[in-house]
Design goal:
heterodimer, A: alpha/beta, 6 helices, 28% strand, B: Glutaconate Coenzyme A-transferase, 15% helix, NagB/RpiA_transferase-like (chain A), CoA-transferase activity (chain A), 3-oxoacid_CoA-transf_A (chain A), transferase (chain A), CoA_trans_fam_I (chain A)
C-alpha cells in the first residue's frame, strides 16, 4: 500500500544503520536532493550506497561521504573534478569501492527488480572488472556472469505521482529512477506534485505504483549539485 | 570525403569533420565525452543522424544556452542540451540495452591506446594511485555495431598510442573498427592487420616510424 508522507524526514525515517541504499540521479538530473539531505540529518551510518557517481561538490551524497556515513559505494564513475570528499575517504582506505560498467550497473539493478538470478553479458570481458568472475561463450562471444544488485531502500525523484503511486518523470531526470524503485525492498520517491487517481494518463505512466512504497511531495525541488 | 587540404596533420576540428563524413546517413550514433562530442558540429540535417546519450535520450539536440537551459535535460557529459523533433526519453537500463543489444550503428570514443587487434584502453591509466572510473565506455565499445576511435597518433611525449598490444587495462577486446588520428585514418582488419586508409601531412613511411608494428597500405 502506498504511504504518502508529509516530510522528507518521515520518508527516510525507516533507514537503518548498515542498510544498502540506491540513490537515483545522473548529474543534476533526477537527484533526490531533499531525500539525501533528510538522510544526512537522520543519522543512519555504515551505509552501502548505489549511485552512478560518488558525490560531487560538498552537498548531497558528497556530504554523506564527507561525514563518514558511507562504508561502501557501488558506482560506475566515482572520479570527477569535484569528487574530493570521496577521493579523500578512498585514499584513506575508509570507503570500499566497487566500480561497475554503467550498463552492468543498470542491468544488475533491473535484474534485481525483475527477479533474475544472474545474467551473462559481453561487457567487461577481458578487462580488470571481470577478474574472478565466471566466463562462458554464448553465440560465439565470451560473456561474463553478473549478479543482481539488491537494496533495502531506494531514494529517487520523479515529476508527478498519483495517489496510486504511479509515476511520471521529466526528460533525462528519469535515468535510474524506474529501475531503482523496482529493485529496492522499500522505494522512497520525492515528487514535485501529487495528483488524484485518474489524473495521470495510464498510457503515459512510466513507473506503475506497485513499485512505489513511499511518496513525499517536495514542491519545486532544488537542483542538485553537479 | 571532405574537401579539406591534407598536406599537414589535422586539427581536432578537422579530424571531427573527417569522422562526421564517415558516419552513415540515417545512423543511430553515440558520441563519447570530450573530443568525440565535437563530431556533432559537422553533422547536417541531411545526414539524418540520431544521437543517443547514455543518460536516457535519443534525438539529442545541440548544447543549450541561457534561457534554453533545463536542469532536467543534460547529456552524458552533464552539459545542458536541447530536444530535437522526434526525440524520446527512457530509463537507464533501456538506454544501455540500446548499446548492449547491438542497436547503435556506431560509437565514437577517445582512447589512451588501441592495438593492432582492435583492443581498446580508454578508462584507466593503470597507475597505482589512480581512482578507477569506467562510466559507459565498456558497454559502448562492446555493444555498438561499429566502434570508431578518435585520438592523436602519439602522446604529448611522442609515445605511440596505436600499439602492437595494449599495456594499459582494457576497456574492450577486439572492439575497435577504425582509428582516426591527426596524421592518418587506420582500418583494423582482424588478425593483427591494420591498413592505412589515408594520411594527413605525411607518407606511409613516415607514419610507420610512429607505429611499432608493420602497417599495410590500402589497395
Amino acid at each position: 500500500m502506498l504511504n504518502i508522507v508529509e516530510s522528507a524526514a518521515q520518508a527516510v525515517a525507516p533507514i537503518t544503520d548498515g542498510a544498502t541504499v540506491m540513490i537515483g540521479g545522473f548529474g543534476v538530473a533526477g537527484q533526490p536532493v531533499e531525500l539525501i539531505d533528510a538522510l544526512i540529518d537522520q543519522g543512519a551510518t555504515g551505509l552501502t550506497v548505489v549511485n552512478n557517481n560518488a558525490g560531487n561538490g560538498d552537498v548531497g551524497l558528497a556530504k554523506l561521504i564527507q561525514l563518514g556515513r558511507v562504508r561502501r559505494i557501488i558506482c560506475s564513475f566515482p572520479r570527477q573534478a569535484d569528487s574530493h570528499h570521496f577521493d579523500a575517504r578512498y585514499r584513506a582506505g575508509e570507503i570500499d569501492l566497487e566500480v561497475v560498467p554503467q550498463g552492468n550497473l543498470a542491468e544488475r539493478i533491473r535484474a534485481a527488480g525483475a527477479g533474475i538470478g544472474a545474467f551473462f553479458t559481453p561487457t567487461g570481458y577481458g578487462t580488470p572488472l571481470a577478474e574472478g568472475k565466471e566466463v562462458r561463450e554464448f553465440n560465439g562471444r565470451m560473456q561474463v556472469l553478473e549478479l543482481p544488485i539488491t537494496a533495502d531502500f531506494s531514494l529517487t525523484k520523479a515529476a508527478t505521482a498519483d495517489e496510486a503511486g504511479n509515476l511520471v518523470y521529466r526528460k533525462t531526470a528519469r535515468n535510474f529512477g524506474p529501475i531503482m524503485a523496482a529493485a529496492a525492498e522499500t522505494s522512497i520517491v520525492q515528487v514535485t506534485d501529487i495528483v488524484e487517481r485518474g489524473r495521470l494518463d495510464p498510457e503515459a505512466i512510466v513507473t506503475p505504483g506497485i513499485y512505489v512504497d513511499t511518496v513525499v511531495r517536495v514542491p519545486g525541488p532544488a537542483a542538485g549539485s553537479d | 570525403m571532405t574537401s579539406m587540404t591534407k598536406d599537414r596533420a589535422l586539427s581536432p576540428d578537422e579530424l571531427a569533420q573527417v569522422v562526421a563524413a564517415d558516419i552513415p546517413a540515417g545512423a543511430y550514433v553515440n558520441l563519447g565525452i570530450g573530443q568525440p562530442t565535437s563530431v556533432s558540429n559537422y553533422l547536417t540535417p541531411e545526414d539524418d543522424v540520431t544521437l543517443h546519450t547514455e543518460n536516457g535520450m535519443l534525438g539529442m539536440g545541440a548544447q543549450a544556452h541561457g534561457e534554453e537551459i533545463d536542469p532536467d535535460l543534460i547529456n552524458a557529459g552533464k552539459i545542458p542540451v536541447k530536444e530535437t523533433d522526434g526525440c524520446s526519453y527512457f530509463h537507464h537500463a533501456d538506454s544501455f540495452a540500446m548499446m548492449r543489444g547491438g542497436h547503435l550503428d556506431c560509437c565514437v570514443l577517445g582512447a589512451f591506446q588501441v592495438d593492432r587487434n582492435g583492443n581498446l584502453a580508454n578508462w584507466h591509466t593503470g597507475k597505482p594511485d589512480a581512482i578507477p572510473a569506467v562510466g559507459g565506455a565498456m558497454d559502448l565499445a562492446t555493444g555498438a555495431k561499429q566502434t570508431f576511435v578518435m585520438m592523436t597518433l602519439t602522446t604529448k611525449n611522442g609515445q605511440p598510442k596505436l600499439v602492437g598490444e595494449c599495456t594499459m587495462p582494457l576497456t574492450g577486446v577486439g572492439c575497435v573498427n577504425r582509428v582516426y588520428t591527426d596524421q592518418a585514418v587506420f582500418l583494423i582488419e582482424g588478425d593483427g592487420r591494420v591498413v592505412v586508409r589515408e594520411t594527413f601531412g605525411c607518407d606511409v613511411e613516415e607514419l610507420q616510424e610512429l607505429v611499432p608494428f608493420p602497417l599495410e597500405r590500402s589497395a
